[in-house]
Amino acid sequence: MGTERAGSQRRGIGVVEIAQSLGVSTATVSRALNGSDKVRPELADRIREFADAHGYVANRHARALSATTSRAFIGFVIPYVDTPAFSTVAAECGRRLARDGTQLILTITENDPERELDQVKELRGIRTAGIVISPTPGILDETKELLGSVPVVEFHRRSGLAIPGVFMDDRKAMADAFGRLTELGHRRIGYIGTTQDLSNGIARQDGIRDGMRLAGLDATDVPTQLVAPVESAGFEAATRLLEMPDRPTALIVGGGTLSLGVADAVRQSGIEVPRDLSLIVYGDPRWFALHKPPLATISAPYDQLADHAVGLLHDALDGTSADGGAAVRMITPILRPNGSLGPPHQHTP
Question: Choosing a second label site near 14 at 20 to 30 A (CA), which of 136, 256, 268, 303?
Fold first, then answer.
């Protein structure tokens, strides 16, 4: 599909246009689209096929949402609600939008592209003024088409559309973390990250590779585990690395939920941090400050991300988006060293 200015809303076809195009009454169109048996089956099929082909989205709540109140609702589409990367941003965006009398309608895709499509259809059906989304890997073309018809802002993950977005500069953050470990003398550094179907997972591994090159290391020096972004996968990946005969002297974790599992695996292994292992995790420093010792954390400033997401959304709604409607904001996470970093300790396999 061709790219459009995010601030300019492309109007989908409505019941009146369908009726005029097919030479039938609006009542007939309405009945056919609502599944009434009062329309001849062949005519109903013709109407529905025409509507689908021309991007019609049912306005299920048109009576409830008048033109003066349609801007009061924003769709917020996230993969999970139980991780700070998404729940914190949702809460922060909700607070900021509430100041303008705007409410979030939250949907959870669980990384399912089909569910994501259904949810975006529903949000368009109730005529939300805009959508903030962290897209699923493998987002469907039909979903992209629908997103092209409404002011939209992406965050954390990229869909490939030329639309506004705000993202963490995870590549730089990971390269900086790797550099901190090599400055301490580490030459065997393990990495645990997410699979490469996630755009932020790709950026984080690219940062690790950047750090490797700067340190003169190669892939054999950096044992890597790429797993699903769930706590249990982080635990299992860390266990595999820590059980290697020539185990890493340091670990970097490229994901907040993964970090919880990794921290648990390190604790259960009996390996002493930082004497036997230096550890850098990703996520909310308030959680990892409770660890003994407090863990070095790549900390994502979610409040800044929410500020930028709401600002970009307002620009898109007002038709004032910069950069041709596809403005991108990058935020660099902060490395908080804490007590889990130290020089490498030689261990006996």
Answer: 136
The domain in which residue 23 lies consists of 1-56
CATH number at residue 46: 1.10.260.40
Q: Are 142 and 117 in contact (CB under 8 A)?
A: yes
* Claim to verify: residue 290 and residue 182 sit in the same structural domain: yes
Residue spans of beta strands (DSSP E) within 90-156: 103-108, 130-133, 152-155
* Domain-located, residue 7: yes
Instruction: Characterize the bridge pairing of strands 73-78 and 103-108.
Output: parallel
Q: What's the pLDDT tens digit per position in 122-154?
A: 999 888 999 999 999 999 999 999 998 889 999
> Does residue 180 share a domain with residue 242?
yes
In a domain, 64, yes or no: no
On the CB side of 30, how many CA atoms lie within 13 Å of its CA?
6
Q: pLDDT tens for residues 269-308?
A: 999 999 999 999 998 767 777 788 999 999 988 889 998 9
Q: Left (φ > 0), alpha (ψ -120 to 50) or beta: where does 156 sit? A: left
Q: Which of 203, 252, 197 is nearest to 229 (CA)?
A: 197
Which one, of 149, 275, 255, 165, lies nearest residue 202 by Cα? 255
The pTM of the full predicted model, rounded to 2 decimals, is: 0.73
Residues 282 and 180 in one domain: yes
